[in-house]
Amino acid sequence: MGEIIKVNNLKKSYGKLSAVRGISFHVNSGEVFSLLGPNGAGKTTTVEILEGVRKRTSGVVSVLGQDPERITESFRKRVGILPQDFNFLERCTANEALEFYIGSLDSSLKPDELLKTVELSDKKNVYFSRLSGGQKQKLGIALALSNDPELIFLDEPTAGLDPLSRRSIQEVMRNLRSLGKTIFLTTHYLEEAEKLADRVAIINFGMIVDEGTPEELVQKNKTSDMLVVTVQDGVSLSGVLPSLAREKSKGVYEMPIKSNDDLFLVLDSISKSRIPVNNISLVRENLEDVFMRIVGAEENES
Amino acid sequence: MNLKRILLYLRLHIKLFSRTRSGPFFLIIFPVILMLLFGSIFGSSSIGKESLAVQNDGPSSAYITGSLKAINESGLFNVYMVPAGQSLSSYMKSNSVSIGISFPSNFSANLANHSAGVQYYSEPGDQAASTYEPVLINLILAGTGSTSAIVTAQPVSVSGLGKPVDYYIPALIGYTIINGIFSMVYVVPNYRKDRIFRQLSFANLTKSEWLTATTLFYVVTTFLSDLIIFGIGVLVFGISLQVTLLGVALSAVVIVSGLLLFTAIGLLAGLYTRDEESAALAANVIFFPMLFLSGVFYPISVMPGYLQTVAYLLPLTYFNLTLKSILLYNSIGPVLLQIGLMVLAGIVLFGLSAYIATKKIEG
Predict the structure, then answer these.
(1) How far lies A268's CA from each of A230, A241, A284, in Å?
(2) What is the pTM assigned to this prediction?
């Protein structure tokens, strides 16, 4: 897999404010790469530099082998962009918007195909202003796909949408992934990155604080899984596992589990005690826990 | 610049324009209303009569009878006699009569001694009323036989055109040109706020292509508005401009130059204002003084001296004067240099505003 995006020591300042402070990463062809970070972390600044919308202060950037600061028509024809807060001409229908994009980018695709890809066929003659938030984002994705691009930038594609619309857009993104497109996704929804991304870079205060597959990030940064035991009224686990069990709420105990040996030991102790148990569950750390820990620690330090 | 993209955007722009409520109104209905209004007011070749209140405080005499006969026969006035002793001012106020004359009781006796006078009544600020004063004096002098005063009952048309409405055609075209300010001034802040320019750039449409397509659209719609004005003028009011093919071609050049100039002014106003509201304010600040001071609706010659100086500083004045010269008097030679300068001004300012737009607009 070739590297389709290469970023080395990228910096961007707005006056005295440093929005991006020397980040480096790469994106491989055909993968979904997610730049994950809280609001104001530098995600949109980074993606806009890669799209050629914004100029960088310093650093080396290569997108599809070109410097995005020197955009050519061919660059635009190879790249699809859904910007943050996507907007379009109010009285333009979905079909007309696509016809304009397809014609302008000399694409051979048909509006109907694109509308079908984003599940918006029934709204082809509806004005942009009358589409719902989720439908507008879908149209934005369709426009980003209108040149059949090699690389697609999706900047916060589900921000501000209701859960149903968000799920629907995620489904569309999953379809794009199956088509083998390279996707650069910025999001602050962790479950979105975890579900869709092959690799994730966590950005905070303009710096990349960690990078890897979602599984790698969890494995690398997790402290321990948690066994949660709910016992019947009037019963306590404190006497059984005094050093481990911590009563989280009435009758609900949490125990950190670092290994399978720990797990078997705890389960064995509970079994032998004959204490009546209502429920036992093992809660594994996910990307959100890791993210919260990394970003939270950064914020505390700052 | 890519012609295909320009035409694609132009087609899209026309579709979107047709869906706005205000767009078709200002393109078709407004010129129709404007022409119908001006045609109705100024479409007749005869001039309406002015109401005149007349009071004789003295005895009836041949001088008074002769004066009244001359006034009546001039065809300029509807005369209302006010009985002696009644307040002439009160009568004029209650009957909405704007001018009046009063023959004093000793008028006839003084006339014999060559020292007679009449009292003229009008509002000091009423310019139309003040123009009748010398006319009436002349009529009275003629009626009394005191002198051989010459009274022009009907104005002589300088252009040889039949109706006053003909005179307003260049002014109405001037109005359609100046609208170019408004066309741009709203679009730019609106598109910037909604980040439409950025979105259009993702379709490879450059800012120069956008500006070309948009200006082309304004040129086409302005010509359409002007055609409507001419069409109604000819079909409904029978206007008859003595214009040659060369005159039409030069008028088109003037219109396009004006559109370039005023579109550029609108574009600059849109670029240097923060939002749609302040852009609209800026456009109105530019538009209205220009509309009223550039001779579109009022002749510059009736303005006080300092306002005439201001008028000649406004670009629209030159477009109006040039169009009048071509369309009313078929006088092309004396305005050729002026046309050349207008073309140059249009191109230079448009180029400058386009350059600034490409630098200031993101995306």
Answers:
(1) 16, 11, 20
(2) 0.74
